[in-house]
Amino acid sequence: MTLPGIGLWMDWAVGLAELPGRQMDLAESAILGAHSFWSQAFGGGTPVPDAPDTPSDGQLSAENAKKATVSPVPRGRPQTSDRSQGAKANANGLTPQNPDRPVKSRAKTTASYGGSFTKGVHTSEFGTRSFKLYSPAAAETATAPLPLLVMLHGCSQTPDDFAQGTGMNALAEEFGFLVVYPAQERKSQTYGCWNWYRRGDQSRGGGEPALIASLTRYIIGEHEADPAKVYIAGLSAGASAALIVAAAYPDIFAAVGAHSGVQIGAAHDEISAMVAMQQGAPGLGNPARMPTISFHGASDNVVHPRNGGFIAARALEPYPCLRKTETTGHVAGGRHYLQTSHSVGRGRSLTEHWVVAGAPHGWSGGNAAGSYTDPSGPDASREMVRFFLRHRTTVKQRSPLLI
Fold first, then answer.
1. What is the pLDDT of residue 130?
2. 3-class SS at 70?
3. Res. 396 pLDDT band, cuts 50 70 90
4. How, if at all, do strands 336-343 and 321-330 pair?
5. Are 294 and 311 in contact (CB under 8 A)?
6. Can you tell me whether residue 273 is helix, strand or coil?
């Protein structure tokens, strides 16, 4: 998540005297530490320590991995478990990672591109944004509508950069789905970030959520995408925005993926955004059930890894009783990880939380040719696609509101 310059940090200090007690302490801490935080985010530096509820690198090592126990987990009563065996391949041919077989990195996979990657501009009453759309070769001969994935880039990124870093177009070609990459305008946010922390961009019917929803509906209609299989994902600021959009429009999106993001309602301005990023914030509960997969690096020094835990916990709240499974594994020559899944019985998972040991702020398993990627981690793109394609909205879910 690209951060503003030190000059803007100083501007935020003007309102400090008006903040009471603990709020002032947190805001002052955020601003006084801004310069060193900037250096850590983009020039190395000491990583933010792991949150107490975030597994450390040692806990994720193969030497400390244990066999799994699985138990139903009533809502609001977290329980601990070890790992379970990976599931068999699903109907889409994607296999959840088995800890006994090292996962692959996106940087190490190749695919031929037979589709088209075109630029467009969408204008609605909520504003105008350009976008890039990847349509796989299968779209020319498909006899059924294709799924659609909306990908929201992080700060300072572009659709082309994000597509290259995540390798999502290769997966779209492999599994047959459309991918649209909206582009944030610099005039809307100086650093190209989605405005997840502004009140006017946090709810249905206005701001960026409404604009993204409008673009999504346009793509569904123009390219005859499957309205039951529409998904949204993002990185950092894009992840935070994706969570907001999915929560605001459950009649459009069947599932959401968040990589290194912050839970909805965790911030309402720049100061609270900084506090949430540095220290973690639980945010607000999800207004409705939304299948959610989240990834976070355990050594992320830009968005504290505690935030990934909050995203997963909030996603779990609307479900009364799910079966919890924890899986540890590693990428060959790369990083260890912990995957926590919740499902109904032995069926598809409704929430997944991946913590990648030693990983910085970047897309896990991404292509090093793109910005903010970590090629040594498990393939977040492939895991998200696996998760998404097992979920769909019903006709009833798609018909409540029109905004």
1. 96
2. coil
3. confident
4. antiparallel
5. yes
6. helix
